[in-house]
């Protein structure tokens, strides 16, 4: 494919350059003026439209077809896979050409996407998250005395030996990373937001297993105490971090770790959570983290923390995936938000130079925009302003066709 008369966005420098761009074998082959291509190659004249790399969402749950996460373990796997295929296809249509799933997705969905059996973003999966008994991944209510089995997206592992075995099992199944529940959460029925979960010995054990496999660990964590314990234990990434403090910022920079804020999910859960299956007891916990999210984002931004773009949406709320751009614009500049969804996400995933960039040799994952996101972040916050989505050099959505 050859794109003519484009304004190419270099997300590292923030510069726009008038140029053509040629794709070959699914990658960016060259950029420059007056490029030529063989007669059989499709040519798109963009008439000066902005072209940028495909977006990366570093915190999704493609199997979270309902906000009632505890019920997912009762669903038929084939029924859940059908829902996941729909969710992934809609993510692709919103401009997300790569996503990192941090609990729930497995090698089956990743293989199906890579083989073209389902439409969707490139899927970087972590398997099932690891949770202690009574932790964020334990879906049992107080009166449920069944053996713990997790809440659809998670598995229970208590003690150093058990967490080592669970980590090894997820890695055996191809996990690109491991996730642990390091604090209480909104969707879990019996824990407190301000609790810490897993001992330091258990956290050190899972980090050792990941490092042995050349993988990394990320943690679900809200409070400063939970965030700081995770970073001190050697985890490479923290999800959410709504209640972090100045010490957290210092640890992020000292450890060269990543933060993935997910502000849109709390907005969506407050507005629509119960409509899409969130139990009332969980809905009442949202306020504990909702208001603090922007303050934490500003604290991390001022402190130079590496922040990737994440959404963490559930059920019918997945449609708000791009709204995170608008929320973050209250604190961050457009180019900083764009970098979080491109180059920083690529760095976190371990695909620097391959995704999130228009460099020659990168995957030809491209967006053609109706507007300039450097001047108006709504260009990305409103998916209808993404005119064309190209994945691996192939047009996968074109609003003009």
UniProtKB/TrEMBL annotation:
CDD domains, alphabetically? Answer: Met_dep_hydrolase_A (cd01299)
Q: What is this protein called?
A: Amidohydrolase family protein
Alphabetical list of Pfam families matching this protein: Amidohydro_1
Q: Which residues form the signal peptide?
A: none
Q: Which organism is it from?
A: Fodinicola feengrottensis
Q: Which InterPro entries match?
A: Amidohydro-rel (IPR006680), Metal-dep_hydrolase_composite (IPR011059), Metal_Hydrolase (IPR032466), Metallo-dep_Hydrolase (IPR051781), OTAase-like (IPR057744)
Residue span, Amidohydrolase-related domain: 50-396
Taxonomic lineage: Bacteria, Bacillati, Actinomycetota, Actinomycetes, Mycobacteriales
